[in-house]
Amino acid sequence: MSNIQQTILFVHWNASEAKELSAPLRKEGWNVAIEHGEGAISLSQLKTHPPAAVVISLRRLPSHGREFADGLWGAKWGRSIPIIFVDGESEKVQMLRKQFPAAQFTSYNKLIAHLNKLFNKA
What we know:
By secondary structure, the protein is of the alpha/beta class.
């Protein structure tokens, strides 16, 4: 297990699924905060303590994920935080690629490798 100190914000619109889906990230050594739609994390908190990246799961309520990304990138300070969309139906992913051209896209199975590459972790 690597000793990764950055915090990843994992966004998924179901609390128990979010905990389960983010468990491999914790096992890999990432600090993980979860937003599951109950307002646990506000934009002002993100401004004060920005995560290294925001991972938005598109498995459940992808429109909510888009709104979250829109709110984050709507703030000038939020544009410097990498957003990684995970999974999703191809039609919705294509729309998100147009709306968020600087965002990254991957599958859940490739997420850890994607994060390790993004942050130059072996």
